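Hi there,

I know you've been waiting on this one. I reran it after we fixed the sequence typo, so this is the corrected version. Both the input and the resulting structure follow.
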Amino acid sequence: MRVEEAVTAITEAVESEGLLLVHDQRLPSVTALIAGEPVRGSWWAHPLSNVIYNALGELDDRFATCKLVAGKLTLIAPRLWADLVAVGAGRRRWQLDALSGADLALLDRVASAADPILLDRPELRAAGKRLEEKLLVTSEGVHTEDGHHLKALTSWEAWASNRRVIGPLPDPDVAAASFEAIVEGWQPGTAALLPWHD
């Protein structure tokens, strides 16, 4: 399969379903779609890994990506972006209750920052990972001038503004139910893999 064909297949799947995991052995995923079967272990060892990687790179701006289902990277169609922002920015108890003071300080810093916050220290990386797991921030990989690959965090409000997600957001619980309906359609019980059910 060529990259162009993979881009088309992924786009059609995400736009049809609304969500698609990047990699999973049981649930609908980019890797299974492109490989034609579930990929065991790391997809980087698969013969089509370059096609998968390059196709995902082509789709960077077309779909949102966050660790939505089972803590794994999930592609989200634009029609669900308002739901995603509503859930992420909702600041519900499931998001905040287990956070430390350092986590909350980083969250406040991200919320008030004009630019993404680079996770360039170990303590920031640990706090950033917890914020990501709770969908409180969105992240992107960045390459630094000295050749390191780091994450940078952005608030959902800033992300929504950059992506032109406009209009009133749905109630976070209604938005969460939208995602639950999609993943339950994949397999009964799969909604339990969404982060608010941890």
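Quick highlight: The mean pLDDT is 94.

Best,
R. S.
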